[in-house]
Amino acid sequence: MRYFAVVGGAAQQTSVEERVLASNPIMESIGNAKTTRNDNSSRFGKYIEIGFGRKGDIIGANMRTYLLEKSRVVFQASQERNYHIFYQLCASRDLPEMRVLKLGGAETFRYTNQGGEDSMQIPGTDDVVDLERTRNAFTILGVPPDQQMELFRILAAVLHLGNVNIQASGRGGDRSYIDGEDRSLAVFSKLLGVERTQMAHWLCHRRLAVGGEMLVKPMPGQQSLEARDALAKHVYGQLFTWTVTRLN
């Protein structure tokens, strides 16, 4: 990008170039993760199309993404991490504006602790500093603070969803339920503005169309866990897509 800007005749970094470069910290935080081979591995594909004017100057850019590894949201192998943004938020939990997210350390969440204690911190990096860098990039790209907090609220909700305790009941565990006092469910519901009792019900039941009628059937414990994780992956995938669209 810097090379193209110079070749195009810009004496200094252009506004478009600055904005495209500013998208890097954001895409790294929501699309990169620590793997056993790479501490900052892209878990999605990215294609940037750059538009040039008649004089060879950069006049626009558009980013396309594909193949986001959504499975990483709910599972990480040993010595690996989830997406960086989750650890950045957990590390910044004591900031005044972040306290509403009710976050703990990364080790307290199922979706961020599966890689093991040694994997949660990447040597030579500071998750608090990286979050500040991510927020500054959002600001450069014109995303206001209240919209940034909406994004962080959804990300925090995903972490709390992973800690919702779904328990099996009935003969052979053919039914499941969530305790009405489950703290993680309460925080998740509050952050997303949904009704807690409805969430508890639909995480443990499914609706079937049979002979033109709609039947509600309880799900076994394992199916409910899979449904919970599927919801987390879907929410993250939609958030990722929204972010790319917003940056464009």
UniProtKB/TrEMBL annotation:
Keywords, in A-Z order: Actin-binding, ATP-binding, Motor protein, Myosin, Nucleotide-binding
Any GO CC annotation of this UniProt entry: cytoplasm
Signal sequence extent: none
Record-level Gene Ontology MF annotations: actin filament binding; ATP binding; microfilament motor activity
Domain of life according to the entry: Eukaryota
Gene3D superfamilies: Kinesin motor domain (3.40.850.10), Myosin VI head, motor domain, U50 subdomain (1.20.120.720)
Domain Myosin motor: 1-248
Protein name: Myosin motor domain-containing protein
